[in-house]
Amino acid sequence: MHQTKRINIIVFIAILAFNLLITGNAAAIAITVNNSAGQAADFTSIQAAVNVANPGDEIIVKPGIYEENIEITKALTILSESGNASDTIIQAADSSKDVFSILANKVSIKGFSIRGSDSAAGIHFIGVADCRIEHNILSNNSCGIDLYMVSSGNTLIDNDVSNGLTGISLGDSQNNTLRNNFISYCNSGISLFDSPDNTLENNTVSGNDEGISLIGESHGNILVSNIIKSNKKVGLHIYQTSSNLIYNNYFNNTANVESDQEAGKNIWNTTKSEGTNIVGGSYLGGNFWGKPDGTVYPGGVRDTDLDGIFDSMYDIEGSGFIDYLPLKESKSTVITVSNSADQAADFTSIQAAVYSAYPGDTILVYPSVYVENVKINVKDLVVVSASGSPSDTIVQAATSSEDVFSVTADGVAIRGFNVKGNISSLNSGIHLYGVEDCLIENNELFNYQGTLQNSVGNYTPASGSNSILNPGFGIRLDFSSNNTLSNNTVSYSNACILLRSSNENILLNNRVSNSSYGIWVDSSSGSILDNNTAANNKIGIYLKTSSRNTVIGSMAFDNSGSCINLWDSSENVLSNNIASNSSNVCVILHNSSENILSNNTVFNSNYGIWLDSSSNGNILNENRASYNKVGIYLKASNENVLDNNTALNNSQYGISLWNSTVNEMENNTASYSYVSILLHNASKNVLTSNIASDSSYGFWFDSSSNENTLSDSRVPNNMIGIYLKTSDKNVLTGNSANLNVKYGVCLNSSSNNTFKSNIVDSNSGYGVYILDSNSNTIYNNYFNNTENIYSEGKSSGNVWNMSKNSGINIVGNSFLGGNFWASPKGNGFSQTHPDADGDGICEAAYDLGKGNIDSLPLAGPF
Fold it and tell me: Where does the sequence pass through the membrane (predicted)?
């Protein structure tokens, strides 16, 4: 292919040189052509006129039908006398040849019907520049107009091309302009192959199999203001080409774009700027995307600021190619409403405007107080305050037994209103029933006039605001999906926002306060709650029997009962939220399983995070709980995973597992509490690599027996490092308990535990304190305290060594046996007693007192 290109280019250069040689300096003349009797003319055929013409001459063709194939090798202008292509027809004499073959620069052809080249082109450019083809009709040719082999700088304008394999073809041609052409009923409307930097503007490409194709090295082209519609297979086909700018086009095909991944490098919109766009809007941006069935993309998205550009970007047919400024077709009527004598308008009530509206219309409401209950049953209706501010456009309930706004049609937008009035317990300020794709934005409901600030305790209602709870709801959704509630402020309600049996909605940047429930999601799934603020409610954010929802980036504070509450709700995600200042609990899960709580901050409450009543299989990751009574609390909840959480300065417990089994705790940090980490009546839990420090108790196992494992954890700077009370059959291994004030480890009425491979050193009181504890196995530990052990009460049967066997012990020698007994002064038993055979075991047993004997004390340096 590349060899063929080189040969063609050489031929082109030779022809161009020949044309330059024969160009003369004679003055241009007009030559006439007519093949009808009775009209005088210079020639009866166009080719005869071409042959004798000099470069720059003008050939004027009178109406008629001319059967010929014409070759042009000099710069000429050929035009019909009438300027009417329908009465000046050139029919191919040989259907296997081009009707016009253009081999010279600066050729102009204007005003003809050109047809009948079944196997070639109506007009064929071969390596030429600066030609102009305009106001022609080309039909029934294999290719209407064919620009080939480095044809550049040519202009094709106002041509009608139809019924061919290809309407207009560019091959290896660049910097050409195609404008205002109409191409229809071809296999391919406009085809660019290895043709960069061309401009396609204001063309209509309709009814073809494939509308426009950009293939190969067709880079850097501009497609602007074209209508590409009703093409059977695809509107625009892009393959292996990039850096094309495609904007302000009208796409309306069953498949608008077909492309490979390389097409991701193309640009699908220009910067937003003033100017009338392809669908009559006031701004240029991206393209209009529609389908023949009337569908418009992106679906379910509104143009709330009425700029003619959708509020969300469009992922073009799910391809990953993005039009960031998709256009909205403006077919709507703006209906005005005012009940003030100072403002002329179409209607004096919102309801009257709704009755007269059609789908897609906009109702513009001027500032005033409107006492009415509004029912909206018109699809895609936008109801918006003219000022954009809820402060001056008030809708007051006329009757308490109806919703203030009742929405029963899809795609409705309500924006910028202050909704007031007392309503009954069954009704709402704004009620969506059985609808989707609605937008409720920037409204205030029920006289909330205070300010919410992003610091704790700074909620202050304005003087005179209504402090009586409205028995109804603020914004309520029933059986409604894919709606967006954004930037609304709702207060003094039974529930500010209620979703009931409503899935996959978006709640964004709403502020809810001073109500029984801030946001209540009931029997609803798949919704996103992002960056909402809930303050001074009984429950801030409440999920009841709801699954697969996401609560992210929200603030919930000063809620009396709970800030965030999940009840019988599973598979939800709570992430990056801040919950604080509840008199009860910041975040509580009740009988709620398989949820993910990640990177939340909870503080200043009785309980930070509480998993209650069979809340099983949840993941708590990188949460921060501080200045609560209990930081993280699991009660009767099993098989949860706590990973990388931080619990600091909680007055009673940092992390507490209460009547809970088979939980995993890893890499958590708990400090500055009465008990850093507490297990009460808990079994089969695994605690690994945690830090419990700077508290009265580091780890406290209370009545917790049966295979709890504490391993590889650090326990410094407590009063008592590790405390087992009435706790049996647990395993403590690989932990470090040091710098504790009273005891490193304390066993109180705890038996049959295994304590191995731990480091217990630098504790001020005793390393290990044993009280009424029997049959524990304690071996391969490193003790280095002023007093390593104290035993009292009825403690018997404790085993201080295992049988000698090979294995790396706590001080790095080759045999396991008992423990290493050291002293900060260097006079501990293991430091001073000989190891004659060098096996790392002292030759003598160590009598610890009160019947406790380490028969195989370890020897050697630590």
Answer: 7-31
**Mind listing the pLDDT tens digit for each residue in 546-602?**
999 999 999 999 999 999 999 999 999 999 999 999 999 999 999 999 999 999 999
Per-residue pLDDT, 22 = 41
Contact 370, 396 (CB under 8 A): yes
3-class DSSP state of 17: helix
Q: How high is the pLDDT of residue 21? A: 41
Is residue 459 predicted with pLDDT exceeding 80?
no
Residue of 688, 690, 643, 687 whose CA lies nearest to 670: 690
Name the pairing type of β-strands 283-284 and 273-274. antiparallel
Residue 370 clears pLDDT 90, i.e. is over it: yes
Q: Which 3-state string (H, E, C) describes 98-139?
A: CCEEECCCCCEEECCEEECCCCCEEEEEECCECCEEECCEEE
Asked if the bond preceding 298 is cis, omega within 30° of 0, the reply is: yes
Question: d(Cα 708, Cα 725) in Å, to the nearest integer?
Answer: 13
User: What whole-number distance in Å separates Cα of residue 490 and Cα of residue 518?
Assistant: 8
Distance of alpha carbon 545 from alpha carbon 555, whole angstroms: 22
Written as six digits, the tokens of 769 are 């304190």
Question: Which one, of 798, 669, 677, lies nearest residue 728 by Cα?
Answer: 798
Contacts of 89 (CB under 8 A, 6+ apart): 64, 65, 66, 112, 113, 114, 115
Place of tokens 């630590």: 862
Please tell me the distance from the alpha carbon of residue 372 to that of residue 432, in angstroms, as a whole number.
17
pLDDT digits (tens, 9 = 90+) for 473-482: 999 999 999 9
Contacts of 108 (CB under 8 A, 6+ apart): 76, 77, 78, 79, 131, 132, 133, 134
Q: How far apart are CA 107 and CA 460, in angstroms?
A: 79
Return the residue matching tokens 């063609």: 8
Which of the four pLDDT bands, split at 50, 70 and 90, describes residue 28?
A: confident
- Taking only the tens place, the pLDDT of each residue in 372-415 is 999 999 998 999 999 999 999 999 999 999 999 999 999 999 99
> How many whole angstroms separate alpha carbon 88 and alpha carbon 66?
8
pLDDT digits (tens, 9 = 90+) for 599-628: 999 999 999 999 999 999 999 999 999 999
Using an 8 Å Cβ cutoff, are 405 and 419 in contact? yes
Neighbour tally for 558: CB within 10 Å: 22
In order, the DSSP letters of 552-577 are: ES-EEES-SSEEEEEES--S-EEES-
Task: Quickly state the pLDDT bin for 26 (edges 50, 70, 90).
Answer: low
Nearest Cα neighbor of 812 from 750, 861, 746, 762 is 861
Q: How far apart are CA 61 and CA 78, in angstroms?
A: 7
On the question of pLDDT at 457 being above 50, the answer is: no
> CA-CA distance, 778 to 798, in Å (whole number)?
8
**Domains of the chain and CATH, by start:** 2-323 (2.160.20.10)
